[in-house]
Specification:
By secondary structure, the chain is mostly helical. It has two domains: 84 residues, Alpha Horseshoe (Serine Threonine Protein Phosphatase 5, Tetratricopeptide repeat), CATH 1.25.40.10; 67 residues, Serine Threonine Protein Phosphatase 5, Tetratricopeptide repeat. The chain contains nine helices and no strands. The radius of gyration is 21 Å and the shape is elongated.
Length: 173
């Protein structure tokens, strides 16, 4: 029988588990409703180990959305965008939160950034159209409703986009 090995973790500054490993485990469970708090703790541990981990910040934001804490989600997404400025998804998520919270100018800013990084992100066009509608800019809204329809003619929001265009301008084409 071998001898026991004792490790003094205080002397070893390298964490026993990496942030990437924690994120990987959290990703495996974060869409299971009864395990979301557990996943959130794993993301928070990953962030504690590696504060510049934009993926962990973004995924923590997703959990906060599911838990109904949009302000905390906004904080997480804002941090993710600072860390990953070339990731259109982070801007999209932050824009969606701003739109949901009624922060329409910020939503336009974030969703526009998302579209610049990923012009084919259909839902970004749809949400940008909604934000423009709330800001009483029907022409700009129409442009993005139409772009959504070009990208997703049978998408989840297609009928709503068509109705918005018909209501505002009288035609879909």
């Amino acid at each position: 029988m071998g001898e026991l090995i004792y490790v003094d973790f205080r002397a070893n500054r390298k964490p026993a588990v990496t942030a990437a490993e924690l994120v990987e485990v959290a990703l495996a469970i974060d869409d299971i409703p009864e395990r979301q708090l557990e996943a959130l703790k794993l993301y928070e541990q990953a962030i504690a180990i590696e504060p510049l981990n934009g993926v962990a910040w973004c995924n923590a934001g997703n959990i906060y959305v599911r838990l109904g804490d949009l302000n905390e989600a906004s904080n997480c997404y804002a941090q993710a965008v600072r860390l990953e400025p070339n990731d259109g998804c982070g801007y999209y998520n932050l824009g969606w939160v701003h739109l949901t919270l009624g922060r329409y100018h910020q939503a336009v800013e974030c969703l526009t950034a998302s579209i610049k990084l990923d012009p084919k992100l259909a839902d970004a066009h749809y949400n940008l159209a909604l934000a423009y509608s709330k800001l009483d800019k029907p022409g700009s809204a129409d442009v993005h409703f139409r772009r959504y329809l070009r990208l997703e003619p049978n998408g989840h929001w297609a009928e709503m986009a068509k109705r918005s265009i018909r209501f505002k301008l009288g035609s879909v084409d």
